[in-house]
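Researcher: I'd like a structural prediction for the single chain below. Treat it as a standalone chain; there are no partners to consider.
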Amino acid sequence: MPRPRIGSENLTIAQLEALLDKRRSKIAKFERQRTKLQKKLEGLDAKIASMGGSAGAGGGHRGRAKNDKSLPECILEVLTAHGKPMKVTDISDAVLKMGYKTNSPKFRGIVNQSLIKDKRFHAASRGFYQLKK
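Model: Treating it as a single chain, here is the predicted structure.
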């Protein structure tokens, strides 16, 4: 619906209210459509994930995974529980097993970066990390 020009005609309050009501009605209709489509997308994402695919990878906004603890905190727990130096791959696998969620296809590299940057961790030897003593 085109907007009436201000000054080109004098609209009454009743006419302005009618215009607002039409717009509110259209907005409500679009919001209902969006909700229905969002539910369909979530259902498709669940089906894709159950088949081992990456839900939401077909384009659009994927969203960031939400976790209760940060990655360095999870790594700290893993290394504390293990007590000995561990390979980066083993650390990343253990972090995922404890329920850490990620959308990254290169999660091992992110774990490696966290191990390098965080001062609580120390490289015991090439590819092995432990807690700093």
